[in-house]
Amino acid sequence: MIEYQTMQKSNALSWMTAAQTYGKVLPYMYSQCEDINCRSLVPVQDTPSNKVTYSARVETNSSFTIGMSANQTALNWMNDEKTE
């Protein structure tokens, strides 16, 4: 298990302020795991010959939507916290 928090200076993450989004209400963060940048998120090999399965637990408040490139297996609410 790897547990970590992200920072705005991560090479693989891009951040948009609420003013830069369509709805202009909430900020937006997305990942670009291309080239070597993915290693700044997770310490794995990033070559086509190395395939890795993964799962994640992401917690946020109910204002945000969580999306990943994996299948959603559960959606839980803890107080006002949404967990996927």
Task: Tell me what portion of residues adopts beta-strand conformation.
Answer: 15-25%
Count of the separate structural domains: 2
- The multimeric state of the shown protein is single chain
Low-confidence stretches: none
Q: Give the SSE string.
A: EEEEE
Strand tally: 5
Helix content: under 10%
- Can you give the mean pLDDT? 75
How would you sum up the major sheet? Answer: 3 strands, antiparallel
General form: globular
Structural class: mainly beta
**Alpha carbon gap, first and last residue:** 16 Å
Protein described:
It is globular and about 40 Å long. The mean pLDDT is 75. It folds into two domains: 1-52, no CATH class; 55-84, no CATH class. 0% of the residues lie in helices and 20% in strands. A hairpin with a 2-residue loop joins β4 and β5 (81-83). The chain is built from no helices and five strands.
Keywords:
mainly beta; 3-stranded antiparallel β-sheet; 84 residues; 2 domains; 5 strands; two-stranded antiparallel ribbon
Note the topology.
Elements: E1 13-16, E2 28-31, E3 59-61, E4 76-78, E5 81-83
Antiparallel strand pairs: 1-2, 3-5, 4-5
